[in-house]
Amino acid sequence: MKLKQENDCCLTDSKMKKLGIVFAIAMGLVACTNGSEKPEKFIEEDKMISILYDVAVIDAMKSYSLNTTRDYPINSQVYIYKKYQVDSLQLAQNNHYYAADMVRYKKMFEKVNQLLEAEKKKYEAAVLKAGDQKSKAN
């Protein structure tokens, strides 16, 4: 069994930077519109951060390994809607609401990035530990 090298992690710095750029552009586009009213079906900030985190992880999985998404197809939108019990309109309205406040929205994505970094470190540590155990066995 071949162990993945540290730079093979699905949450590489370049992918996280690309993700950040995409979200920055989205924030800029949405910020150009007038302020948004609080949606009727409001999603709390912590829940919205969790949704954004899951979307980032799913997108990273899709871009990292085409075999994984082919062998285990997942409709990421349906998954998010079911997991968080939201619908597409509710999610879009809440995303628009949060994006209207760029400072708040940026802080939310900083939290998402922190969660991604923590998860990345956890997996890197597991890979290193597995490599150490393999070296001791030989």
List the defining traits of the structure above.
138 residues, mainly alpha, 6 helices, disordered N terminus
Task: Please describe what this structure looks like.
The chain has helices spanning 13-31, 45-64, 66-71, 76-84, 88-99, 102-137. It is mainly alpha-helical. It has one domain (13-124). The protein starts with 12 loop residues before the first helix and ends with a helix.
What can be said about this structure in brief?
By secondary structure, this protein is mainly α. It has helices at 13-31, 45-64, 66-71, 76-84, 88-99, 102-137. Helix 1 runs antiparallel to helix 6 and helix 2 packs across helix 6.
